[in-house]
Amino acid sequence: MFDIWWLLQPGSLMAICLLLALMALAVRAQRLAVLFAGAALLLVAVPTTFDVAGRLAWELERRVERPEPMPAEVEGILVLGGAVEWRTSRERGQLNLNESAERLMAAAALARRYPDARLALTGVYREDIESDFVASPRDSSLIFGEEYRGREIEFIGESRSTYEDALLALERLRPRAGETWLLVTSAMHMPRALATFRNLGWTLTPYPVDYRTAGEPPLLNPDPQPAESLAALDEVVREWGAVLVYARLGRIGWP
């Protein structure tokens, strides 16, 4: 579904333009070579000079805020996948996280805060992190404690998209009317995730984490590093692309 958005990411477009420039040079089409090379340079120069990625990320992150105050009682905590490097975790026998690690950190913190709440993790199987979210620590455990003893933890590993997160979570968890469930995911991902669940009839309380912006970004990029700026823009373009696809498919009513 999202292959087209992979092709339309700025980093991918830059690579395509460079390849076309080389092909144009090979057939002595110098004007085309200059055109494609200029386009590639522009795709790097714009996000490096201007904080395009920050602006687009902020437009998503500012839409949903954490509840203040936090609920006094919570029946469940649902943490969406994307933080665990499951292949590395499985092969190394130790939890490995990526740049969205705050999702798992929030899961552990909320589990301590609400010891009676059910805990559900999507996009990861129990065997991927079998040493974590346990009461008694093992040699490779990073997340453990008494708050996990006797706690009901559901692993919905087969989920591979936000829409599948919502469908499978509803099917497995069967939340009751009136229950308070927290939804944990990255702040940039939260608007689409929350809208997807609500569109399927489940209203959760958002708990966004993993912010990429400190507030409304400036016009100029405060950290003008080409590789990092282009990678950040790729990530936010993927999310905006997913938002547009979900809206087109009727999975959300936003934007």
Set down the secondary structure blueprint.
Layout: H1 3-7, H2 10-26, H3 30-49, H4 52-61, E1 76-79, H5 86-92, H6 102-113, E2 118-122, E3 153-156, H7 162-173, E4 181-186, H8 190-199, E5 205-209, H9 226-249
Parallel strand pairs: 1-2, 1-4, 2-3, 4-5
Helix pairs in contact: 2-3, 3-9, 4-9, 7-8
> Into which percent range does the helicity of residues fall?
40-55%
In the sheet with the most strands, the strands line up as 3-2-1-4-5
Distance between the termini: 19 Å
* Radius of gyration, CA atoms, in whole angstroms: 21 Å
How much of the sequence lies in strands comes to: 5-15%
Separate helix tally: 9
Poorly predicted runs:
none
Order of helices and strands: HHHHEHHEEHEHEH
